[in-house]
Amino acid sequence: MLDYPNAIKVGKNSMKVNYKKVNGLSSSVRIHKAQVQISFSKFLIGKRRDKTVLKFLKWAEKRLSKVSDNTVLTPVYKDGGKIITLDHDEKIVRVANNFFKKGNLDNKIETIISPALETLKKFVQESKKFDLIFIDADKGNYKNYYELSLNLINKESLIIFDNVLWHGDVFKRTVTDKQTNIMREFNKYIKNDNRVEKIILPLGDGLTICRKV
């Protein structure tokens, strides 16, 4: 099993996560968790001055429109950058696009409604490159998303995965359901991959940050 306490170690200190009753969190607490992750994303984007950001995740546009407003996007669009989101739910995309228009961001955010794997393969064929890729989608395809995404970034660029601690269940040896084991196997896969530098941060439900070397 992956040594999670060491995986999430930052500097000389280890961070502890309390996942008690996480599945019963109220919507306001969940929004707060999203705000923490978005603030961290803003920090990364701002420091790196990334120009092109790819986000593909369930509820991506809803999260952006209801939580982040202009804040997380400012470092991107001030430098002429762009965010591309991938989603398969047309209804959510329509709602999100209305928020983007109200925030005068519709010219900086492109939404593609299509299965993510198909879109990524198309991007690879087109030799597209992104400075940062954020992934929160179906966990069973995390490895596939990862392999395709590696072809879409240059050295020093980042891929970020959400939910890698899976409500804390990846820590619990007695939890052996399919989804938890999928996340464990994915975490091991990333841990053993020398093509990237990586770290797990206990923000929200866990973020894995991979930097291509």
Low-confidence sequence ranges: 8-29, 57-73
Give the topology string: H per helix, E per strand.
HEEHEHHEHEHEHEHEE
> What's the CATH architecture name?
3-Layer(aba) Sandwich
Cross-sheet strand order for the largest sheet? 5-4-3-6-7-9-8
How much strand? 15-25%
Overall average residue pLDDT: 77
Based on DSSP secondary structure assignment, what is the total number of beta strands? 9
Question: Fraction of residues in helices?
Answer: 40-55%
Secondary structural class = alpha/beta
Radius of gyration: 17 Å
Domain count: 1
Largest sheet: 7 strands, mixed
Determine the CATH superfamily: Vaccinia Virus protein VP39
Q: In CATH, what is the class?
A: Alpha Beta
Q: What do we call the CATH topology?
A: Rossmann fold
Measure the end-to-end span. Answer: 25 Å
Figure out the total of helices. 8
Tell me the overall shape: globular
Write the layout of secondary structure elements.
Elements: H1 4-7, E1 9-10, E2 13-14, H2 27-48, E3 52-57, H3 60-68, H4 74-78, E4 82-87, H5 90-102, E5 109-113, H6 116-125, E6 130-136, H7 142-150, E7 153-162, H8 178-191, E8 196-201, E9 207-212
Parallel strand pairs: 3-4, 3-6, 4-5, 6-7
Antiparallel strand pairs: 1-2, 7-9, 8-9
Helix pairs in contact: 3-5, 6-7
In short:
The protein has 213 residues and is an alpha/beta fold.
